[in-house]
Amino acid sequence: MRLMPAPARLWKPTLDCNDFELTTAFWAWLLDVGVIVDLEAIRVLGPAPGQPTLCLQRVDEVRSGKNRMHLDLLTDDLDGTVEEVLTRGGTRVPTTRSQTSSGPSWPTLLRARSA
């Protein structure tokens, strides 16, 4: 147990999907939840604000070996946390086209191989 606060907090799991409508319908049915955020490439499913949610992210490519689930994390010190992840063996993924648009941007990191 650490004495200092954790550098990041879990925000939400995010599932990449290339069939947005089918994936939305399936998870909403299975979890008995509704769409609480509906954007062009992002949908958030959940029962109510403050409760656990699942984010669906539209992607063009079909799954070909990569993990389609990732964790979105929040941190008060983005640059410091990214540097610490890299120091501990994480890898930065090159910026993708969607991250260079006028919308929000974020670093994408891979876990250390031994983690």
Structural account:
By secondary structure, this protein is of the alpha+beta class. The protein has 2 helices and 7 strands; from the N terminus they run βαββββαββ. It has helices at 20-31, 78-87; strands at residues 9-17, 34-38, 42-46, 54-58, 69-74, 91-93, 108-110. The protein folds into 2 domains: 1-61 and 68-76, Signal recognition particle alu RNA binding heterodimer, srp9/1 (2-Layer Sandwich); 77-115, no CATH class. The strands form 2 sheets. Strands 2-3-4-1-5 form a 5-stranded mixed β-sheet, covered by helices on one side. A two-stranded antiparallel ribbon has the order 6-7. A hairpin with a 7-residue loop joins strand 3 (42-46) and strand 4 (54-58).
What are the salient characteristics of this protein?
115 residues; alpha+beta; Signal recognition particle alu RNA binding heterodimer, srp9/1; 2 domains; 5-stranded mixed beta sheet; 2 helices; 7 strands; 19% helix; globular
Give a short synopsis of this structure.
With 115 residues, this protein is of the alpha+beta class. The protein has two helices and seven strands, in the order βαββββαββ. A hairpin with a 3-residue loop joins strand 2 (34-38) and strand 3.
